[in-house]
Design brief:
Blueprint lengths: L2 H26 L12 H21 L7 H25 L23 E2 L18 E2 L8
Helix pairs in contact: 1-2
Length: 146
């Protein structure tokens, strides 16, 4: 395998790890802490997203993937619009209950001292001059992780 093929394999593995952790959060709640683990599911999702982000950055830095801010902005807008359309369709079909709250609401509510997390957007890899934040923060803007 070439270096690019290895990095693409790592990228695929990181995508699967994000999906697995999101599945665990849906099943057990964002604030559940798995036995033997120091972090709750929300923090573990953020950790997996950071790993995924770095796999993307490595592919961008070597030129295997390219990004352009205006394309990314348009892509984000298109994805957001698509998700909103699908949410409306789900609501019309009766599979979305907007009064149910978050995935963790039926399992374990966060305490007032636990902020609700917002997931970071992946960025282009410039670490500083980019309009796409690389740092995961809570709803109050406090830094999470390291």
């Amino acid at each position: 395998m070439t270096r690019t093929e290895h990095l693409l394999t790592i990228l695929a593995e990181e995508c699967a790890e994000v999906a697995q952790r999101v599945s665990k959060a849906l099943r057990f709640g964002l604030h559940e802490i798995q036995e033997g683990q120091p972090l709750n599911n929300a923090d573990r999702i953020l950790a997996e997203l950071r790993d995924l982000d770095e796999a993307v950055n490595m592919l961008v830095k070597e030129g295997s993937l390219t990004t352009h801010p205006s394309i990314r902005t348009e892509a984000h807008d298109q994805k957001r619009a698509k998700v909103e359309r699908l949410l409306l369709m789900s609501a019309k079909l009766g599979t979305l209950n907007e009064n149910a709250g978050t995935a963790s609401s039926t399992r374990m509510e966060p305490s007032p001292s636990q902020p609700v997390l917002t997931l970071p957007r992946l960025h282009c890899g410039c670490w500083g001059q980019c309009q796409y934040p690389a740092v995961p923060t809570d709803s109050a803007g406090h830094f999470f992780g390291g």
